[in-house]
What we know:
This protein is of the alpha+beta class.
Amino acid sequence: MTSMVVIATRLFTVEEANSLLDLINPIIIELSDFSVKQEMLEEQLEEIMEEVKDDYRAALRPGWEELQIELENNINIVNNLTIELGKLGVEIDDPALGIVNFPSLRGIETVFLSYRLGEKSVRHWHEYDENYESRRALEQELDIIKQ
């Protein structure tokens, strides 16, 4: 029987999340750029694959191997940036849009503080099982952890 490995999640106060923004913003910018680029590379390769179905010579076209190598490198960069944010306790919601979550507590319930690239500070939150679309503005009376 496999045992579940529970990774201790770092919980953030709003202040702690805000204090990390200067450090993580450059990482999120890079992650966003490479995620958008990855989508483009994957689309280009898919187009070639479609052509290969009809004519195998499309696979011999110059640039096809370079595309694959570029995509592989791109995937590695995205993975490394994801790991870098993960080590800080930051979870990625939408890499292309630069949306990240900071696990936090509201009363005894785990919630996410939500931040999107370009925002001046962390001002939103949503339930653990919701996404960016459902986020709400933080209000002072909210029982988010403060220590």
